[in-house]
Every structure is written in structure tokens, then in C-alpha cells.
Amino acid sequence: MARTSVLIILVLQKCSHDWATGIEGYVLFRKDRNKGKGGGVALYINDEIECKEIRSDEMDMTESVWATIKLGKKTIRASPGIVLGVCYRPPGSNLDMDRALFNVFNKVNTNGNCVIMGDFNFPDIDWRTSASNNNRAQIFLDAIADGFLQQVVAEPTRGDAILDLVLVSNEDLIEEMVVGDNLGSSDHELIQFKLNGRINKNKSATRVFDFKRADFQKLRKLVREVDWTEEFMGLKVEEAWDYFKLKLQKLSEACIPRKGKKFIGRSCRPSWMSKHLREVIKKKQKAYREWKKGGISKESYLIEVRICRDKVRQAKSQVELDLAKGIKTNSKRFYSHINRKKTKKEEVGPLKTEDGVEVKDNLGMAQYLNKYFASVFNKTKEDLRDNGSMINGNEDMEVDITISEVEAKLKQLNGTKSGGPDNLHPRILKELAQEIASPLARIFNESVNSGVVPYDWRIANIVPIFKKGKKSDPSNYRPVSLTSVVCKVLEKILKEKVVKDIEVNGKWDKLQHGFTKGRSCQTNLISFFERVTDFLDKGNTVDLIYLDFSKAFDTVPHGELLVKLDKMGINRKIERWIGNWLKGRLQRVLLKGELSSWREVTSGVPQGSVLGPILFNLFITDLGTKSGNVLIKFADDTKLGGIANLEKDRDTLQEDLDDLVNWSNRNRMKFNSEKCKVMHLGINNKNFSYKLGTHQLEVTEEEKDLGVLVDHRMTMSCQCDMAVKKANVILGCIRRGISSRDKEVLVPLYKALVRPHLEYCVQFWSPMFKKDEFKLEQVQRRATRMIRGMENLSYERRLRELGLFSLTKRRLRGDMIALYKYIRGINTREGEELFKLSTNVDTRTNGYKLATRKFRLEIRRRFLTIRGVKFWNSLPREVVGAKDLSCFKIKLDKFMEEMV
Ligand SMILES: *[C@@H]1O[C@H](CO)[C@@H](O)[C@H](O)[C@H]1NC(C)=O
Ligand SMILES: *[C@@H]1O[C@H](CO)[C@@H](O)[C@H](O)[C@H]1NC(C)=O
Ligand SMILES: *[C@@H]1O[C@H](CO)[C@@H](O)[C@H](O)[C@H]1NC(C)=O
Ligand SMILES: *[C@@H]1O[C@H](CO)[C@@H](O)[C@H](O)[C@H]1NC(C)=O
Ligand SMILES: *[C@@H]1O[C@H](CO)[C@@H](O)[C@H](O)[C@H]1NC(C)=O
Ligand SMILES: *[C@@H]1O[C@H](CO)[C@@H](O)[C@H](O)[C@H]1NC(C)=O
Ligand SMILES: *[C@@H]1O[C@H](CO)[C@@H](O)[C@H](O)[C@H]1NC(C)=O
Ligand SMILES: *[C@@H]1O[C@H](CO)[C@@H](O)[C@H](O)[C@H]1NC(C)=O
């Protein structure tokens, strides 16, 4: 990977120093100011980098300079490199000059990458929200949004204004930006960053199954021919499993060819390039040589050119259409098609050790990360795994795992996911569901009933996922386990049994969301903020405390966890199996085909397994408070909220916090005090301070709560801005990466990749202000305008032609679906606390009429439990009376069809 190239870029104005001369080792491009003395813009590029200036008449009208650079030795033709531009827009710039500049942006920002830098003199843009009250600034903002450019400078560059901007087509281009220092006599801060050119990928030697060429028919036949009962005769669990694994691996090798793993990167061939197409291209190149030699006429050559162009276009649009059709089940393909990593998270390192030594090679990084991950485990003296000879207390019922259960779970596997360390790929298991269900059921049955967990089910390959912060710091990576897929199938079966046992035994934890069916981030947020907005509406001030456990999943102590499990009343055989599954685990880090050595896992529940999260939830079941304050948990996200009008309210909250700290000490799971925050809500909040142990909690005005940005005014504006930004980034990728403008291609991509960002948990954060509602809708406007034939139609017309709803209407629909779930569906448990059926039941209207409630504040009026009631009550009886959710949706859509 080619990285870091030194570049110096300057915007020169009022500079007395003559910067615009040469600098040793750099190529200079400059444009002097037309009128007046001094000034102008210049771009210096390290002369080891291949670069070329771009000029056009339009560019000449503006005070800007442009060049393309190519990084790395090999760039394929499809990748035009990176366009760099430096601009100066004077404060008194008129509209025509601005337009000329924006046109240049559009020219350079077609399908490659670009980085546009400069001083644009828009002091009154709020870059956090991308908003401005100034008309001209608004035009500028629209122009960059239409071009899907992102502005990445977040700190003031002169005084307290952000004047110098860096606009990029893709945020990943820029790394480690620092604003600070200044150069010579300028009053502007210097902006420094690293430009990221990933071009030369190191090819990995791993060879993976090529499922496209697999003969599953033959594989099924071969597997059916094995007499498992005979083969398993006299074998213990571990031996039976090994036999099964080796047999299946061997037969798979015989029926599925392998291929070199294609890494997503610019050096690989575009996905539409078929063998046939390569021949067409060769033919065209040959025709070119012939024509140059005088062998054929220019016309004959041009015919070849046209044929080739048409074929390429056809091939591309076919690939794009296939992509769009399959987008719901496989979004990975989209990102590999547009040559972009889905997120930056996939790139690791280079790492720095504590002594400041840089580690760059994959193996070294894998070793170092594994060492780090293992260092957070809480090493306690562990009992040896019991070998199945004894079982505490009463013998419990035999666990019966049926063949049909196993087959059903195998069929549900996602064939595009990765395999675990046992090399049994989910795609193979899924294809062979019917054939292998019986031997697996037998192995599962014996494993659970004897308590023996085969070695392969206790080892994990760890994939480091970058979170945020410095890439060189190993603590900024989250270890996610890839474990045996077969074992996960068993885990799923056991999980259902465990949940059932707990429900039957009533050890239910109502504070917890994200555990059972129907509970989600959204239900968590709604339950919690229902109470909070109600407190506020009644004139109280409220304090929210966001708690953060450090390395929660990895530090769960096994001993304590098992003691708690024992009290939950789950089947003891399953309990013992879980104990043995947790103990004696090993892990190694897998990084681009390189494997570290093994390390022991002495605490924690594996992240990435099926049982991990539910075990974690069970572990924190007894985390609670005694007071009437609201506590809610979602995996390791816990928050506490309460009225904070008076000193005594504060004391109650503080007591609750003390209880939580007491719990954390008893359970050896530490809070990350630096990351625990308090947020003060309500006018005249007294801003009390709180202590977590001895640490005074930091105050925050906005907090990312389960992926939603909540701020202390609860207006949801920040969240709207964030959602719009995310959606626009993906829309930009689609515009750049997909050449088709057909609705068959763009609509499915929009629905699958863009719209979800605008609707994630939206029933909780539904916009309060018209301007925010407009901003959200604007993304859909932009998306629909990209489609061929829609350019000149009104938005309403476009929606009708494309069969889409406005986002506002979709939110109303979503509200009703949420209400249905609360009142008649899967969430009735929470629904009872959120809604009351109306007592004056009028039998002529719908039988589930809700009581309306009083409110005072706008934030309350806009909250789901208040805003949803009116429309719900207006739904006809036959809609709300639908027998299940899918029926309800059909009837609701029919009812809403007549609405605009
Ligand atoms: C590619 O990776 C291998 C092993 O990880 C390393 O030995 C080799 O030098 C790398 N090649 C390049 C061009 O970086
Ligand atoms: C399978 O996994 C991929 C990526 O991990 C996901 O996008 C897709 O929706 C999943 N498919 C199904 C059927 O769950
Ligand atoms: C493990 O637990 C002990 C006892 O509670 C604690 O003192 C220690 O700091 C923990 N170690 C780690 C690495 O968390
Ligand atoms: C299990 O271990 C105990 C001692 O810890 C031993 O007595 C017993 O024979 C072992 N059972 C099996 C089945 O290996
Ligand atoms: C699983 O074990 C139970 C009880 O030992 C037994 O009744 C059942 O037939 C077994 N099922 C399979 C598929 O082996
Ligand atoms: C912690 O909780 C335990 C049990 O609930 C109690 O006995 C103990 O006094 C508490 N400790 C503190 C410091 O509050
Ligand atoms: C609490 O803090 C906010 C800003 O964080 C401030 O506006 C307000 O005046 C403070 N309230 C009191 C009573 O100090
Ligand atoms: C849309 O309008 C523009 C100019 O107003 C025109 O050039 C273009 O051809 C129109 N497009 C369609 C599809 O009608």
C-alpha cells in the first residue's frame, strides 16, 4: 500500500514573502492574482509523485490551480488518480464568480477522487450542522452537497472561524488532520493532513472456495453415501466431531474448486470485465495498430471502437443491474464493485508499541494485537474444566436436540459470512443442511448431555475492528471472534432453550432491551425517554447519566457468571455445557491471511458468538437501583435518569450511582470513568455534579445513545444532521461508482443503502422542526433526481413514478407499525407502560382507541407516545384489528394510499 506522500499546499494572499518561487524537491503550480499585487494560489507537489496540471478556460476565470496525481507505481486506467485543487474565493466574490468555481468543482469531481482546498471566506457557516443563514453560503453548501463533497476541517483556522476548507470526495482520503501553527506572516492556521492513496495492494496467498464453480449436487450425493451411524459407533463426542469435520472437509475439497482470494482494491480488474470483453478490447487494440500501420482504414478502426464501447457499456449495466437486484442480501458486492472498503475499519495499523517502535508487517501486528487483547483479560485462578463425570446438585432432564431443529437452523445460515477456524464454511453447511442435520444432531445431543465441548468449538480467530482514535494504538481495536459456524448452530438452539427456561422461571429483567424478540435500540430509547420527556413536561429538570463499562465483554469473570447462571433456573446440563464452552478457550488474531500464535482466554464472553451477548445480559441482570429513577440497559450501554430539581433529588441519584459502583466492584467489571458522562436537561437545571467512586463526572451536551445523537435540548437537530450526512456520503458513492442512471438500478440501491440511514430508530428521533424535516427529505429529492427521465419532474411526481413514499409519510407509517407492536404485537410488555386504552370505548370506531394525554412542551408533543395517538385513533377498526403484523401493514398501506 502506498501511503503518505509529502505535499505542500498553500493559499497565498497578502503575502509579502515570495512563496511562489521554487522549493527544492517540489514541483510548483501557481496562479497569480489577476489584479492587485502579490497573492494568488500555489500548489507544491513532491517531485517523486507523478502529477500533471489541469487547465481549462473555466478554471482560468477563477483563482484556483488544479493538478492530478497518481500514487503508486501501477494505476489502472479506470482509476484517474486524485485531483488536487487549491482555491481562493475573495470575500466580495459575486454570484457569477461563485458559479464558475462550482462548475469547476463539478468538472473535476466526476468519478475519481478529489481533494479541494482553500480559503472560501464563508465565516458564517456552522460546519457542525452544515447550515448557514447567509444566502450565498447556502448556495455554496448546496453546491457541495449536490457534488457529494464533504468538508473535513472541524477546527477554526482564523480567529474562531473556519475559513480554510478541505473538501473531499471521500473522507477516507484524509487522515490525521491537524490544525495549528502558522506559516510565515499569515494569520491563518496551517492545516496538515496525510493523503491516503491505497493503490498497490499486497496480494495475499490465501485461496478460497470458488462457490460459483462448485458441484453441490455431487457433494450432497457423496455426503448421503456416508453411513454416519456406523462410523460414529463407539466414538466419543470429540472423536465423532473430528471424524465429521475431516470427512466434510475432504468431500468439499473434491467438489469445490479454489481460487486466489480477490482483494478489494484498485489493482484488481473491474467486476464487469469478462473474458469475452477482454477479447473485444484486444481486438480493438489490434485494429488500432493495424490502422497505424496502414493495414486498415480509419473507419474500420472506428467501427471496432464503437463495438467495444457498446459492449463495455452493456457489460457494465448488466453487472450493475445484477448488483441492484441482489443488494438486499449482499451489500458487500456493492462496496467491492465501487472499489471502496465499506468502512475505514477494515484497515489496520501501522501499530506503535509502548516503547514507540512501529510495527507494520501483518504478522507482527497480529502478534502484537493478540498480546494486547489478552492483556485485558482478568486472570483468575480457574477451576479446571470438568470432564463430564460430575454434575452439581440434581441431575437435570436430558436435553433433546432434534434433527429438524438442526436442519432448520442450518438452512437459516447466511452463506456470505465467513467461516470459523474449523474451515467449515457456512455456505457449505447451508447447502448440505438436509444431509448433515442427522449426524450433527447426534453430536450436539451427546455434547450437551455429556458436557464435553470439542476443542474446535473453543477456539477463535480474532478479527480486529478499528473503532476510532489513533490507528497506531491497539486499544482502539475491538476484538471480534470468528468461531466455528457449526458450534454457533448449537449455540442458537441452546439460546432458545435458555430464554425459554428463564421466561418460565420468571427471572426476567425488564430493564433490559436487546435481549429478546422485538426489543431493539428503538424500544430502549422510547421506553427511557418516555419517562424523561414526561418528567420534563411536568416542569422538572432531569439529569441523565451515561455509563460506560471498560472492555465489558472481555472482562466478565467466568466464576461469577456461572454462579449467577446457576440461580437463573436454566437446565443444568446446558449450564454445565456453557461453563465448559467458556473455559479453556484459545484465540489468535487473523490479519490479512496472517495468523498470530494462540493465547489463552481467561475471562469474558466471546464477542461474535451467539451465546456471548445473552450471557453478558444475564451477568448484568442484577445491576439495578433501589430508587424510582429510571435505569435502562442495552448490552453494555447503561443509562440512568432522574428528576434533579432539588438537592435531595441529587442525593438520590448519587446513591443510585454509588450502588452501581458497588455492583461494579463486587462483579469485577470496571466503569471507564472518563467516558461516563452526565447531561443536564430542562431550563434552570441546577447543574448538580455527581461522582462515580472518586471521579467527578464530566458534563456533556450531546451524546451518542445507541447510535442516535441526543442533545440536552432534545430537539433532535444534531441527529438529523448526522443522518443526512451519512446518507449523502453513500449516495455520493453510488453516483460516482455506478454509471447506470436507470431506476431499476438506482432505486434498489437507494432503498438498501441510503434510506436506512435516514430511518434508523427514527420513530424515536422524528424531526421536530420543519427545517430538519426538509433536510431529510432533501436527500431523497437528490436521490430521485439522479434517475434518468426524472430530472425535470416535480418531487411528488418523481415519487409517484418510482413508487416511493415521502419520508414524512413513511415516518407516519412507521409510527403506526410501532404502535401496533406496542398495543397488539410483540412489544405489548412495554406497551402497557407507554399507552392506555381509552376508557370511553365507542364501539363504532376502532376497538383499540387510545387515551389522549395532556402535554405542555413541544418535545413532548413530538414524542411517539403523544404524536402517534391521534392518527392511530383515526384508523378504521378493520385496520387496527388486523390479526398479525403483516396483515396490518397491508391494510395500513391500503388506507394510507388515499392520503397524499
Ligand atoms: C507482501 O507481504 C509479504 C508478507 O506479508 C512481504 O514479505 C512482502 O514484502 C510484501 N510485499 C510488498 C510489496 O509489500
Ligand atoms: C448476510 O450477510 C450480509 C453481510 O454480512 C448481509 O448484508 C446480508 O443481509 C445477510 N443476508 C441475510 C439473508 O441475512
Ligand atoms: C482482575 O480482578 C482483580 C480483582 O478484582 C482486579 O484487582 C484486577 O485489576 C483485575 N485485572 C484486570 C486486568 O482487570
Ligand atoms: C474426570 O476427572 C476425575 C478427577 O478430576 C476422574 O476421577 C474421572 O475419572 C474423570 N472422568 C473421565 C470420564 O475422564
Ligand atoms: C438425543 O438424546 C435424547 C435423549 O438422550 C434422545 O431421546 C434422542 O433420540 C437423541 N436425538 C438424536 C438425534 O440423537
Ligand atoms: C455494597 O453492597 C453490599 C450488598 O448490597 C452492602 O452490604 C455493602 O455495604 C455495599 N457497600 C457499599 C460501600 O455501599
Ligand atoms: C447550567 O449550565 C448551562 C450551560 O451548560 C448554563 O446555561 C446554565 O446557566 C447553568 N445553570 C445554572 C443554574 O448554573
Ligand atoms: C430537462 O430540461 C432541460 C433544460 O430545461 C433539458 O435540456 C433536458 O433535455 C430536459 N430533460 C428531459 C429528460 O426532459
Describe this protein's structure.
With 900 residues, the chain is an alpha+beta fold. 42% of the residues lie in helices and 16% in strands. It has 31 helices and 30 strands. The strands form nine sheets. Strands 4-5-6-7-9-8 form a six-stranded mixed beta sheet, covered by helices on one side. Strands 18-23-24-19-25-28 form a six-stranded mixed beta sheet, with helices on both faces. Strands 16, 17, 20, 21 and 22 form a five-stranded mixed beta sheet that branches. The longest helix is centred in the middle third of the chain and has 28 residues. The radius of gyration is 31 Å and the shape is globular. The N terminus is likely disordered. Bound molecules: 2-acetamido-2-deoxy-beta-D-glucopyranose (8 copies). One 2-acetamido-2-deoxy-beta-D-glucopyranose binds next to loops.
- The strand order across the widest sheet is 4-5-6-7-9-8
CA-based shape = globular
Number of helices: 31
> How many β-strands, per DSSP?
30
Unreliably modeled segments:
1-6, 73-78, 199-204, 262-268, 341-345, 387-394
Taking all residues together, what is the mean pLDDT? 83
Portion of residues in helices? 40-55%
Structural class: alpha+beta
Q: What fraction of residues sit in β-strands?
A: 15-25%
Bound compounds, each kind once, are:
2-acetamido-2-deoxy-beta-D-glucopyranose
N-to-C span:
53 Å
Please tell me how large the radius of gyration is: 31 Å
Major sheet characteristics: 6 strands, mixed
